Amino acid sequence: MLERQMTMNISGYSNLYDLIVPKDHFLRQINDLVDFTFIYEELKTKYCHTNGRQAVHPIRMFKYLFLKTTYQLSDVDLVERARVDMSFKYFLELAPEDEVIEPSLLSYFRKNRLKDKEFLNLLIKKSVETAQENGVLQSSAIIVDSTHTKARYNHESPQEALRSRSKVLRKHVYAQEESLKEKMPPKPTGSSIEEEIDYTQNVLQVVEDHPTLKTYPKVKESFNLLKETVEDDLEHLRLSADPDAKVGHKSADTSFFGYKTHLAMSEERIITAAATTTGEKNDGKYLTTLIEKSIEAGMDVKTVIGDAAYSEKKNLIYANEQEITLISRLNSTITHGTRRKDQTFEYNKDAGMYVCPAGHMAVFKRRDSRKATKDKSPRVRYHFDIEKCKVCPLREGCYKEGAGSKTYTIRIQSHEHQEQAAYQETEEFKERAKSRYKIEAKNGELKQRHGYETASSSGLEAMELQAAMAVFTVNMKRIVKLKNQ
User: Fold this and answer.
1) Which of 44, 181, 218, 316 could form a disulfide bond with 172, CB atoms 3.0-4.6 angstroms apart?
2) Whether 294 and 350 share a structural domain
3) Does 319 share its domain with 432?
4) Is the pTM of the predicted complex or chain greater than 0.90?
């Protein structure tokens, strides 16, 4: 029966674990920290419990994926290491002499057992519960941000993607055995995907025919990753590079092709909510989603810290209604208009007038006669003495020669904007805003240590699974670290 599989076989070699796997080993601590039965409860309906060949227990399969994410291994390398690494076998609850799975089972498990959009939320909720049970999550503030992940085929054609991966493998092979250049197949001259796939498989075969090459770690890793690319994504390669990926913008000058993960994190650096989207989505639109998901996961959210993307009016209204303090600086166009920093006009509250960078005060103001629309706030136009502007040493870029007037126009801020503008100048706001760097460091950890820089497969569904495993992994690592402290 499936339910009995996770009981470790009685073995005369089990005492090896006490000798080889230290009590403070990370994987031993994870086994002690987390009750993984929630995985079985979530997935048991996807298995037949009466007929067919006995399946590998879903908890053990999930643990394989946890190891894959933690140590950034291909399926083949993961299984090979699990065969000889006692800490892996202990974590998988296998007896030292037990056999491990076939690598192909991991691909099947990912594609057929984990097709559930709520799986990401489930893993986050479990990690938040674990953190609270162990007393390491006590804050009522969350920090919000998004991180981008490049598509597996980052604006490349499928042929280019395979070509670049086979190039890496050839480079590592030639570094060990330059004479193999003569045995490599001729590069394809056509542009069809079929030719490129055949060429890639022939390159793999050359390495297969020289087994000593795979004793070199770089050759072995690049070989296994290329082979996994072809096997996992052959259908995607024939159809499309990545139909779900979209172009997003990191700044006005830089863009990427892929996905976004919108994240909320406690001040203890435990992720409390996540939402995966295509790359073009706006960060600010997901603030309410992140707050509500954090609350569902068990957080008592009183404060939210984020950059200016989250300070749009709807979010200010929502935060006020929920009695949540929003530490998010208003966009500069709201507080200073659209001028450059060196052209910013300052408001003199005593005179009720704006003063230009040269120190000249407006002589009068007038409400813009145009009516405010849904997309255009009402405006006030401030008029300056044109004679002073004509001889001003700072007139370049500010005053247009020959103009009959000089004005400075501002939008009339809403009540919410006025309150936020005043609050962001307080010491409390400035001090709390300093915590925002923590989530940027978490984004870096996801990318540098757990493969989140590039999508591991094609499609938004696969991206959601990658997010689920990566977030759960970094949360467990953080909980263990905080607990040990």
Assistant:
1) 218
2) no
3) yes
4) no
